[in-house]
Known about the structure:
Helices cover about 40% and strands about 15% of the residues. It is built from twelve helices and eleven strands. It has helices at about 20-45, 50-65, 70-80, 90-120, 120-130, 160-175, 190-195, 235-240, 285-300, 355-365, 380-385, 400-405; strands spanning about 180, 185-190, 225-230, 245-255, 270-280, 305-310, 315-325, 330-335, 335, 345-355, 370-380. The strands form three sheets. It has a seven-stranded mixed sheet, sandwiched between helices. It has a two-stranded antiparallel ribbon with strand order 2-3. About 25% of the residues are buried.
Amino acid sequence: MTPKKKLEYAVPKLKDFSAAALDKAAEKLLAALEYEAEEVVTLLADPSTPAPTKNTSFKDFRDRWMARKNGIVTQINESWLKSAPPAAKRDAGRKVNELKTRVEAKMSEVQERFVFFGRMSPEALVSLDKLASPQSAQLGVDAQHIDVTLPGIRRPLGAEHPVIKTMNEMVRVFRNLGYSVEEGPEMETDYYNFEALNFPPNHPARDTQDTLFIANQESKPLRERLLLRTHTSPVQIRTMEKMKPPLRVVCPGKVHRNDAPDATHSPIFHQIEGLAVDTNITFCDLKGTLDHAMKEMFGSSVKTRFYPSFFPFTEPSADVQISCIFCGGRGYRDGGPCRNCKASGWIELLGCGMVDPNVYGFVDYDAKKVSGFAFGMGVERIAILKYGVDDIQLFFNGDVRFLEQFV
Length: 407
Ligand SMILES: [Zn+2]
């Protein structure tokens, strides 16, 4: 074991946040980075370094610079950016970002060396070492002696993302009821996203969906302008255009709204919508289908109830609540009120209704002969309930520590 080296560099607290002072501090940090990286690479390339030492020294190096808690990158973020006076924030932010990129680049460079030298046998490394010295170029062939019997680097098997997993589970419930699956484009025209769904221009309901429009389309007529779909309902229109009743489809997919991200909102989320059109479909069929689907997803003891609501493309419309899965619908648990249902015993989960006859007009169905229902639900909302997640952002941050729990 080599004795632990004393680490010289420490992130200084800045008093002066001028551009010149930041440059100077950055220069020192980069010099330290170069020096320490060089040290680790030398150690990795040395054939006499035992494998565990290589491991520890690479990991120490990585943690020292990149650890979320107290790594050097975190430290400069705290003491150079967050502590900067408002006037210097912009410059400091730029500098810290630049340094972050440099540290990350250096880290992947060192990691490559780590992987490379970690896989080679000591003999091959000796040869490589000799090869590097000018007088022994003839030993080049030995450098090919990579011990193929050494175990490789095992890559962890991936797993379904909890949102996709939940979406697939829901799709399965409806497939078992005879529904087929349809998908459509994420970038839609105003016509499919709004107009054909009975949202006429200037209809107030358009304001409830903060839409992200594609820029520079003012010269096009409104119905042709492109936007990121705010719901998966356009897929229903596209499906009805190409298929005649009887029809039973579910449309899973990603949707976008101009919402600021917080614990319950995200500019990207997923929906599953369903549509059934046939002769003599009634509200009873809708209730029976959704009651069955909720029991499949949350357990047979779950109850459902329907509340009047409004959606432009269904009439009548309803919100569906399920009995609280945390308190069994009692409204209290552990001797206090249930937080999940705010002591009401019910949780609102999805919207639904009978397809508005106006919609049939857009797709050439005879509204006098057919009737149908539609429903839609947010996938993240269901995943949050199923897995007890308290922040929707966790689904999108890509933090492996969170995702590993679903393997
Ligand atoms: Zn409850």
